[in-house]
Amino acid sequence: MGQYIGAIDQGTTSTRFIVFDAQGAIVAVAQKEHAQIYPQPGWVEHSPLEIARNTDEVIATALQTAKLTARDLVAVGITNQRETTVVWDRNGRPIHNALVWQDTRVDPLVAFYAGQGGKDRFRASTGLPLASYFSGLKLKWLLDNIPGVRERAAAGELLFGTIDSWVTWNLTGGARGGLHITDVTNASRTQLMRLDSLAWDDELLNAFSIPRVLLPRIVSSSEVYGEIATGPLRGVPIAGILGDQQAALVGQTCFRAGEAKNTYGTGCFLLMNTGSTPVSSAAGLVTTVAYQLGKQPAHYALEGSIAIAGALVQWLRDNLGMIAKSNDIEELAASVADNGDVYIVPAFSGLYAPYWKDSARGVIAGLTRYATRAHIARAALEATAYQTRDVLTAMEQDSGIKLSELRVDGGMVLNELLMQFQADILDVAVVRPKVTETTALGAAYAAGLATGYWRSTDELRQNWGVAKRWTPAMTKEQRGRLYSAWQKAVTRSFGWVE
């Protein structure tokens, strides 16, 4: 019997393989980046074959470095960049590069469908507004634009999947009997699955003219699907699949309704567990499947995306040259006592949740002769905390649940100034866990629960340890004053693009 659990974390920029022990500590890790392909403005692609090769490579490297073999691993879980779309033939040849979640080539399709019934016409059944994000329209684009693909799809020659499906199919044998599956969390991001039945929906497939024969079988997030067929992990079961943000929710052990996590990266992804019934949003959030453990009922989440968080710090570094490296921002921002009444609204490509204003653009408001680059640096960090409060307020309104603490992960959580300000502006505790690789850990947890490596979610909760907790230290008056000035700045960004 092995003593570890492995996790494949296939992200937007790189693929990693991480091995965890029973306490959730990292035993081995390997990582490899893949190419970002930009055929024209707004188009983003990845090579599925490169991702498959890199997956094999990082598995081999991590095992080698830690001197582990297949016998040391009980199971493997998979987590992945969501919504990125792959179509391949039964011999394992992709018909085109993968269309990445950020790709906007389907904007005309979004406009076409919204024109027929509004942006929310599929929201009641899928939890999602019409947007270029989701996989269904990307799949439609491939069927409509790559010669011969629609005919081959109808004839049953082709397979569609998000990255989890592609990786699983290859690992479990590929052309020789590979499993064609996707889990409920990834399926919920295609805009082709009903949230209530967790099944592909004929009405949606007809609306988007997608042949059902292309689609993978929908499975739970935590069960033994099959075994790895080749390579150094041959014979090890794959037993967990979760989209990356849902995996982070599981890795943060947010198993009760009302528990929430925020991942601070290039953008922010805030998810709140709402329990075993989907909560529809009146405030511009998406409703999504959080996870389904084995035969238990699925849990659902409200999700809010903030487009620009860490990206604003990169902008100060690369475009304005205010700092030499990203982590210089904390020292610069801390050199002043407050923001000097400066606010940055980073609506570089419009505003996401809860405003959804495509025509907004970035503004720096409140400038006077008093303002320095330190005030601008501070305003940039504070912008992430204000945007998080905007989304959390919407979540509390939608769910009727008051947040008791916010669990945080991602690159920016090492910034103490930001984390303290986040606690202050939310008026709730902000908590950073000991293991910050929560996405990979969530995939490992799903696989470990399915194989009995961990007995229950209660056992996982005991694993979850606090590295640092920030508690609010700001007066109610100051919090109110700052937040109302932020809201005023946000309105100044509206309607810039005619």
Write a short abstract of this structure:
With 498 residues, the protein is an alpha/beta fold. Helix content is 34%, strand content 22%.
How would you explain this protein's 3D organization?
With 498 residues, the chain is α/β, with parallel strands linked by helices. The chain contains 16 helices and 21 strands. The strands form 6 sheets. A 7-stranded mixed beta sheet has the order 15-16-14-13-19-20-21. Strand 15 and strand 16 form a beta hairpin. Helix 1 (48-65) packs across helix 6 (163-171), helix 9 (244-251) packs across helix 14 (438-450) and helix 10 runs antiparallel to helix 12. The longest helix is centred in the last third of the chain and has 27 residues, at 373-399.
Level of helix content?
Answer: 25-40%
Number of strands: 21
Query: What is the spatial order of strands in the main beta sheet?
Result: 15-16-14-13-19-20-21
Let me know the average pLDDT: 94
Which radius of gyration do the C-alpha atoms yield? Answer: 22 Å
The secondary structure category is alpha/beta
Indicate the overall shape.
globular
Strand residue content: 15-25%
- Stretches where pLDDT is under 50 for at least 5 consecutive residues are none
- Count the DSSP helices: 16
Topology, element by element:
Blueprint: E1 4-10, E2 14-20, E3 26-33, E4 45-46, H1 48-65, E5 73-80, E6 85-89, E7 98-99, H2 107-117, H3 123-126, H4 135-145, H5 149-154, E8 158-162, H6 163-171, E9 181-183, H7 184-187, H8 202-207, E10 217-219, E11 222-227, E12 237-243, H9 244-251, E13 260-264, E14 268-275, E15 286-291, E16 299-306, H10 310-318, H11 329-334, E17 343-345, E18 363-365, H12 373-399, E19 405-409, H13 416-426, E20 429-433, H14 438-450, H15 457-463, E21 466-470, H16 476-492
Parallel strand pairs: 1-5, 5-12, 9-10, 13-19, 19-20
Antiparallel strand pairs: 1-2, 2-3, 4-7, 6-8, 11-12, 13-14, 14-16, 15-16, 17-18, 20-21
